[in-house]
Amino acid sequence: MQDRSLSYLLLVPAFLIVLATTLYPLAYSLVTAFREWDLTKQRRPGDFVGVDNFGYAFSEPGFQNSLWVTSVFVITSVILTLVIAMSLALLLRRKGRMHTFTRVILILPFAISPALIGVSYRFMFNPEFGVIAKGLGAVFPALDGVPWLASPDLAMAILVLTDVWHWAPYMTFMCLGGLASVPRETEEAARIDGASNLRIIFGIVLPQMKGVLLVVAVLKTIFALKMFDQVVTLTGGGPGTSTETLAFFIFNVGFKWYDMGYASALAWILTAIMMLISVWYVRMLLSERKMATA
Amino acid sequence: MRKTVFWWVERGLLLLISTIVLFPIAWMFLTAFKRPRDAYSLSLDFSPTLSNFVTVFSDPWNLGDMVLNSVIVASVTVLIAVPCAALAAYSFSRFRVRGRKFLFFLILSTQFIPAVVIVLPFFLMFRSLGLLDTRLALIVVNLAIVTPFVIWMIKGFIDAIPTDSEEAAMIDGASRLRVIKDIVLPMAAPGILTSSIFCFILTWNEFLFALILTRRDAVTLPVGLVSFRTERGDLWELMSAAGVMITVPIFIMALLIQKHFTRGMTAGAVK
Question: What CATH number does residue B233 fall under?
Answer without folding.
Answer: 1.10.3720.10
